[in-house]
Amino acid sequence: MMRFSVVSLARNALNFNRDWPRQWRSPAPKKQYDVIVIGGGGHGLATAYYLAKEHGITNVAVLEKGWLGGGNTGRNTTIIRSNYLWDEAAHLYEKSLQLYEGLSKDLNYNIMLSQRGVMNLAHTLQDVRDTKRRINANKLNGIDADWLDADEVKDFCPIINTSKDTRYPVLGASLQKRGGTARHDAIAWAYARAADTKGVDIIQNCEVTGINRDKGRVTGVETTKGTINAGKVAICVAGHSSVLADMAGLRLPIESHPLQAMVSEPIKPVLDTVVMSNAVHVYVSQSDKGELVLGAGIDAYHSYAQRGSFHVIEHQIGALLELFPIFSRLKLMRTWGGIVDTCPDACPIISKTPVQNLYLNGGWGTGGFKAIPASGLVYAHTIAKDEPHPLNAAFSIDRFTTGHLIDEHGAAGVAH
Ligand SMILES: Cc1cc2nc3c(=O)[nH]c(=O)nc-3n(C[C@H](O)[C@H](O)[C@H](O)COP(=O)(O)OP(=O)(O)OC[C@H]3O[C@@H](n4cnc5c(N)ncnc54)[C@H](O)[C@@H]3O)c2cc1C
Question: Where would I find the Rhodanese domain in this sequence (predicted)?
Answer without folding.
Answer: 35-79
